[in-house]
Amino acid sequence: MKPIVVLGAGLAGLACARKLASHGQKVLVVEAKSKVGGRVSSQRTETGFLVDEGFQVLLSSYPELNAVVSLQELELRPFNSGALIFNGQELGLLANPFRHPGQIRRTLHFPDATLKDKFLVAYLMLTSQRHREDQPLGHQSTLDFLKSFGFSSQFIENFWIPFLSGVYLDPTLSIGSDFFRFLIRCFGWGQVCLPEEGMEQLPIQIASQLPPDALRLNSKAHSWTDKEVTLDSGEKIEAAQVICAFDQREQNSSENPVFRKVTTYYFTSPQLNGLGWEKWLILVPPRLGMTITHMALVSSVSEHYGADQKPLLSVSVTGIKKSDGSLVAHEVEKIARKSLSLEWVATTEVTRALPIISEEGAGFEVKEGVIVCGDRYASPSINGALRSGRLAAQSCLEKLSG
Question: Are 84 and 161 within one domain?
Answer without folding.
Answer: yes
